[in-house]
Amino acid sequence: MPIEIERKFLVVGDAWRATASRSERMVQGYLAGPPAARCSVRVRIAAAAAFLNIKSATPGVQRDEYEYAIPLEDAQRLLATLAGDVVEKTRHYVEVDGHEFEVDEFGGDNAGLVVAELELDRVDAPFPRPAWLGREVSELVRYYNLNLAAHPYSLWSAAERNADDAH
C-alpha cells in the first residue's frame, strides 16, 4: 500500500528562490472528497503531464496515497466538467542538503500563501531546516489543498491568519 509521509511548513521570505532548480505551474481540482468520503480524489495537471490522485482524508504527516498518470486531454475535460473548486500554484523544487523541498506558491484565490513540503521515508526521519522554513503546519487541515480549494486563503479571517503568527 503506498504511504505518503510528508511534512508541510509555512515559508518565510524569498531566500529559497536563489536555489530553486526548476518550477512548474499546476492546476488541480477535486472530483470527490470529505465529508461524504474518507478520501479525496483529485485530478492534477502539472506542466504537460496529468494525474489522478486518491489520498486518505486523515490529517497528519502519514497518509495513504495512490497516483496514476492519465491522458492530458482527459484531465482537462475532468477539470472543466466534473471538478469542483480548483487550486492553482507554481511548484518550485529546492534542494537542501540532499533533500528536495517542494515550495508551492499559490495563485488565484490562494495568492499570498507559500508553503514548503518535504516527503520523507520515515515519520521520524531527520531533515535540514533552512532559515526560510517557517512553522510546521502538517497537522493543520486548513493548509491541505483540498481545504484551500473549498476555503481559499483570500477568505481566511484575520483570526485564521493571525493564528499562524502567534506560534
Short description:
The protein is mainly β. It has helices at 72-81, 145-150, 158-165, and strands at 3-11, 20-32, 39-46, 49-56, 62-69, 86-96, 99-106, 114-119, 133-136. It has a single domain (3-165), classed as Hypothetical Protein Pfu-838710-001.
Describe this protein's structure.
The protein is mainly β and 167 residues long. It has one domain: Hypothetical Protein Pfu-838710-001 (Beta Barrel). The chain has three helices and nine strands; from the N terminus they run βββββαββββαα. It has helices at 72-81, 145-150, 158-165, and strands at residues 3-11, 20-32, 39-46, 49-56, 62-69, 86-96, 99-106, 114-119, 133-136. It has an eight-stranded antiparallel barrel. The longest helix is centred in the middle third of the chain and has 10 residues, at 72-81. The radius of gyration is 16 Å and the shape is globular. The model has no long low-confidence stretch (mean pLDDT 93). InterPro entries: CYTH-like_dom_sf, CYTH_domain, NeuTTM/CthTTM-like.
